[in-house]
Amino acid sequence: MAGVPANRNTLLAALCLTIATSAQSLLTTASKNSKGSYDYNVATVPFLSELIKLCVSSFLLYRAHKADPRGTQITTDWRNVLLFPVPSLVYLLHHSITFPLLRYVDPATYQILGNLKIVTTGLASVFVLGKRLPQIKWISLVLLTIGTTTSQLSSSSGSIFSAPAQGYLLGVANACLSAFAGVYTEYLMKKNDDSLHWQNVQLYSFGVLFNAIRLTVDDLSAGFEKGFWAITLTDGYDVVTVFVVLNLAFSGLLVSVIMKFADTIAKVFATSLAMMVTPFAAYFLFNIVPSFPLMLGIVIACISVHLYYASQKDLFELSEVPKAGLTKIPSLKEVPIPASDTEKTEKV
Amino acid sequence: MAGVPANRNTLLAALCLTIATSAQSLLTTASKNSKGSYDYNVATVPFLSELIKLCVSSFLLYRAHKADPRGTQITTDWRNVLLFPVPSLVYLLHHSITFPLLRYVDPATYQILGNLKIVTTGLASVFVLGKRLPQIKWISLVLLTIGTTTSQLSSSSGSIFSAPAQGYLLGVANACLSAFAGVYTEYLMKKNDDSLHWQNVQLYSFGVLFNAIRLTVDDLSAGFEKGFWAITLTDGYDVVTVFVVLNLAFSGLLVSVIMKFADTIAKVFATSLAMMVTPFAAYFLFNIVPSFPLMLGIVIACISVHLYYASQKDLFELSEVPKAGLTKIPSLKEVPIPASDTEKTEKV
Question: For testing the chain B interface, which of A133, A194, A334, A348 should be mutated: the one with the most B CBs within 10 Å?
Answer without folding.
Answer: A348
